[in-house]
């Protein structure tokens, strides 16, 4: 067996047991495998209650060719002290102001030297054996560029609250929804160099944008293994910024279909004929219910102008009419519904 790292790391806080506190992953030393270097970047900013668990879940993988980088944005909550405890086992770390999460991840990736890259947010956790399973899969399928797996949901106390089984890869479905769980996703460095790094103008869906750009050539695949745990807590962006996230996702999908998707002959009819409209319906409805009426109308109008079967157009238009009536409380609803029916040719 490879040497144990558990006894070398700082002891866990009182009362912390199990993975990744008192348990570690290992790879048998008799496995005759050239393990590719995996570079993990953790962007960190004021997540001290969760950061140490994240760090240990990476280091205790027992993976023999690991490069771990932490980019902290100038935390003031004790995160820096936690990072310093583990700096002996880090390839690089820094704590300084940055331009947000995407900028921090890109900074880390530009320093990274691994053949396989990923990022793990400072409140999420890898599960035992994740890196080993990822490496073996890329070795078996060397032509692939992006890999993703299944996901656990955990709460503030790391109690499991749910499970996500990701679907098999489909580019058409990916435009319909971002079904690729970010904490379980690993990329070939060559793919990053080919399509570019994270778009730093995006704040919520930079992962979705990157997945679409890499996956456009259909060299992505699903690994049926549970690789990571995503943490829901009151401060997480998924919890606090749902509307903004939904709108940004629609913008990313629209840009992909306009700039990239036409080159790859997306076959909507083999999946659902109205897949391309879904991100815009979702964004429009989210905006309606948050009271942002003008923005909502723009996204809903885009949705109706995308290809739909006649039956789906009718259902969609009537559903939107109900939203109009409910949100407008009857005021101007008749005129809005009339305009809607003309747009949808009903």
TrEMBL record:
Transferase as UniProt keyword: yes
Keyword set, alphabetical order: Transferase
Start and end residues of each Glycosyltransferase 2-like domain: 39-142
UniProt GO MF annotations: hexosyltransferase activity
UniProt KW Transferase keyword: yes
SUPFAM superfamilies: Nucleotide-diphospho-sugar transferases
InterPro entries: Glyco_trans_2-like, Nucleotide-diphossugar_trans
Region annotated Disordered, chain positions: 1-22
Pfam families: Glycos_transf_2
Protein name: Glycosyl transferase
Species, as recorded: Pyrinomonas methylaliphatogenes
């Amino acid at each position: 067996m490879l040497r144990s790292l558990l006894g070398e790391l700082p002891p866990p806080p009182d009362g912390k047991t199990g993975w990744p506190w008192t348990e570690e992953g290992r790879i048998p030393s008799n496995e005759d495998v050239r393990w590719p270097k995996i570079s993990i970047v953790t962007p960190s900013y004021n997540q001290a209650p969760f950061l140490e668990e994240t760090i240990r879940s990476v280091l205790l993988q027992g993976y023999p060719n690991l490069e771990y980088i932490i980019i902290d944005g100038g935390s003031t909550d004790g995160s820096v002290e936690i990072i310093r405890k583990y700096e002996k086992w880090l390839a690089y770390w820094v704590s300084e102001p940055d331009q947000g999460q995407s900028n921090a991840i890109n900074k880390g990736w530009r320093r990274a030297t691994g053949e396989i890259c990923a990022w793990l947010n400072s409140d999420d956790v890898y599960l035992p054996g994740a890196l080993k399973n990822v490496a073996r899969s890329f070795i078996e399928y060397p032509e692939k560029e992006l890999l993703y797996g299944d996901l656990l949901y955990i709460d503030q106390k790391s109690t499991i609250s749910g499970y996500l089984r990701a679907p098999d890869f489909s580019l058409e479905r990916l435009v319909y929804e971002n079904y690729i769980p970010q904490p379980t996703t690993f990329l070939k460095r060559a793919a990053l160099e080919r399509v570019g790094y994270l778009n730093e103008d995006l704040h919520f869906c930079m992962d979705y944008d990157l997945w679409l750009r890499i996956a456009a050539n259909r060299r992505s695949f699903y690994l049926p293994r549970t690789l990571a745990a995503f943490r829901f807590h009151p401060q997480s962006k998924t919890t606090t910024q749902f509307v903004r996230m939904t709108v940004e996702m629609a913008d990313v999908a629209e840009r992909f279909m306009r700039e990239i998707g036409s080159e790859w002959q997306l076959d909507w009819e083999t999946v659902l004929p109205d897949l391309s409209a879904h991100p815009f319906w979702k964004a429009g409805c989210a905006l309606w219910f948050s009271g942002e009426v003008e923005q909502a109308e723009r996204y809903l109008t885009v949705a109706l102008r995308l290809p739909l079967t006649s039956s789906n157009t009718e259902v969609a238009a009537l559903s939107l009419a109900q939203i109009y009536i409910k949100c407008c409380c009857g005021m101007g609803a008749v005129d809005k519904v009339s305009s809607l029916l003309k747009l949808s040719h009903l």
